[in-house]
Amino acid sequence: MSYALLPGHVVELARHCVLDWLGVTIAGSASEAAVLVRAEAEREGSRPVATLIGTGSRATASQAALVNGTSSHALDYDDMSLPLMGHPSVPVLSALMAAAEEVDASGDQVIAAFVAGYESECLVGRLLNPEHYARGFHATATLGTFGAAAACAHLLRLDATQWASALWIAGTQAAGLKSMFGTMAKPLHAGLAARNGHLAARLARSGFTAETAVLDSPQGFADTHGGDAHHTAFRAGLDDFDVAGVMFKTHAACAFTHSSIEGLLRIREETSVRPEQIANVVVRVPSGHLRAAGIERPATPLEAKFSLTMTSAMALATGDLSERAFTGSAVADPVLTALRDKVEVIGEDTRADASHVEVVTIDGTVFEAEVATSKPRPISDLDTQWSRLRAKFTGLAAPVLGMRATDELADAVRAIGPSTSIRDLTALAI
Fold it and tell me: Considering the entire predicted model, what is its pTM?
């Protein structure tokens, strides 16, 4: 996959992904999960060749992939992909940027490698999903390992045999369970996917080999992880790159809470209903949303991000679902918890991707809304998307870097190309 042959909108979307990844990684670097993983890497010692984003530290490329991958997913605020049924950029960019620093790669090399990784993980996702995700696997972790390996294989210019080995080595390491949602293990999944994908490519480059039919062999990845390994037309009907379908979060919570949040925010804005006026709230969602975001009474800010009841209460009471809203005091706030306990969430197998919300007041008035949010921004509107992403990035990065450095980094991302040094770019992210 050559940078020169990539369509302009694909290059631009790759830059959007890099900006969003940097923002969530910089802010996530202060999370408890990221601090603990970084401390473990520092205890190991290292040959410092790659930046631990958001900090003044450096580590080996492998350690940086692990730490940055964990940081970038710690807030659960990173981008999304429907074919992957997960978060596409965090495992790929966390591995790729570390590898790029080590070899002093240019911006065009990183953009091309990123697209290769993104498309690869989505191809595997089209092969295995929705069965893979429904079985309980965290696709960001499992399929993201393939994406990280593919991105690094592209950057390191592996030959066809080495490429195959890298993907198969990735497949035998891929792991991650949805039962870990709401815990520090979920962002660790992304870090492990990045580290293991990076390791797979490096081992393959050295001549390490593995089973070459890992996806469709008996007891291979598809056999054990779900999906139809014989579905050879899984890209049929696509007329664009999968990266054209990337979606960016506007709320710092599980993606499966977003349609409900948007519906309740609409009611809040249009009616000015107050928490004390509400008798009960009914939220109807696809059943799969409950399996990912069904924590009824969260005890921590992290659990609150995976709670349809809590995020619904926050949407109605404050309208603020930014990262700063998810605090210990918010989780324990009596107004929020009282409203949370009035929220009934119903999973419906017949419902597609939309959520229907109903707010009933004490006097019997009923307000309703139905919203579907799983839609990418049209290619014709990428300037608007960049503006919104830059505002999100500023809110995440400026408290860590300061305003001047934040603006400089965002401008550098917008200009990523053949003349860009990735080492110079990451040096701005500390």
Answer: 0.91
